[in-house]
Amino acid sequence: MRCIFADTRQDDRGSALPIISCEDALSVVHDFLDGELPGVSRKQMKAHSDACQRCYPHLHLEQVFREAIHRAGTEQHAPAGLKVKLMELLAEADT
Ligand SMILES: [Zn+2]
Fold it and tell me: Rounded to an integer, what distance in angstroms lies between the CA atom of residue 41 and that of residue 78?
């Protein structure tokens, strides 16, 4: 699936925020979920993940994974197969 932002970086439609690329979005996703974003605003990340069908599964699953780990860490040990399962989902989302 093509990223809808792939050809729109120079197409200024009056958006207040510059569109970040998929590479930028995915490279800062860990920082985004940790609450720190060097060089990219949370608004930009949110806008990209909301609109980009290519990145959304990655960003969404990363968040779900973090939440699952967090819950597991406070309640019980993380299921051994959880990360493997999420990696499989990410692989499927990429095709
Ligand atoms: Zn994207």
Answer: 31
Give the residue numbers spanning the domain of 44.
22-94
Look at residue 65 and tell me if it is in a domain: yes
Distance CA 79, CA 10 (A): 45
- The string of pLDDT tens digits covering residues 65-85 is 888 878 877 666 556 677 788
- CA 92 – ligand 1 centroid, Å: 16
Residue 54 domain-assigned (yes or no): yes
pTM of whole model > 0.85? no
Ligand 1 centroid to 80 CA: how many Å? 30
